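Appendix B. One record, verbatim.
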Amino acid sequence: MKTQYKVIQSSNASKFSSMIALLIIICLFLAPWWAGRADVRLMSEIFLYLSLASLWNLLAGYCGLVSVGQQAFVGFGGYMLFALTIFSGLNPLIAIPITGLFGALISFPIAFLIFRLRGAYFAIGTWVVAEVFRLSFAQIQSLGGGSGSSLPVAIVKSIASSKAMRESLIYWMILSLTVFILLSVYFILRSRRGIALIAIRDNELASESLGINITKSKLFVYIVTSGLTTVIGALIFLQKLRISPDAAFNVNDWTAFVIFIVVIGGIGTIEGPIIGVLVFFVLRETLSDLGSIYLIMLGFVAIFVMIKAPKGIWGYISNTFKIELFPLSRKLTKFKGE
């Protein structure tokens, strides 16, 4: 009887969380009408980092694949967007999903190489791949070479007739992608594959003895995260309207900050990246004027959180107050009760 009560409580909590999330999404969708243009751009940036953090968390927090080279797919997405729109004449809104397909396809040969590595060697391997991408695109003179290029005015105007409408369209695309990524991560983790991923992360040897195909499970996550990260990269540089190798494959912007967000928020939780990205942007908006001291402060915050709350801010809150906004264990609890 006690088990059944827990199931009902978890179900009610899940429904309440879903209703609150839906109301928040509706309010955010209407942001171009109630927020200023600078605020809309800031929210777009927050959603982009939340998307990157959620995907990296799925890769590292649930699959054990600690990558420090996700900027490879961010930059690849940006350059593919520019190439498809400039050379093929595609509308950017059509080119963006195609970049995701290219990102997923190119992740196959990359996975074939780096999946032979383990632990720190895997992390270094992903960074090397990103550097190869950066050096390769720096040699393509038709895309600006090392100095980069801007998106032609005609292509920019093809998105929308006015600047305000163009910015709103890009904002809605970013918001839609973020919602899609959060839902995808949630449902993947609620599935049998998600249970397999957690088992692999905790103990590969034990999970293999249970019949879990480790390579297949990791490959699935790597391809999904690569394709979606490529789409994020395309949206990032569609918003910026300019791209260069150093900006596109910047390890600090697209990987280091993302890892910081996940670690302080709570790795291995859906809520962690959400908390982490809010903390990161609060710190950035209040400390960014301090120059290099800002980065030092971020380092101190990360160290403090890792010492005082090894499971991150959300892990500490969840353990202390027994809160779970996005419960993943409801099916298992119900199954146990039955």
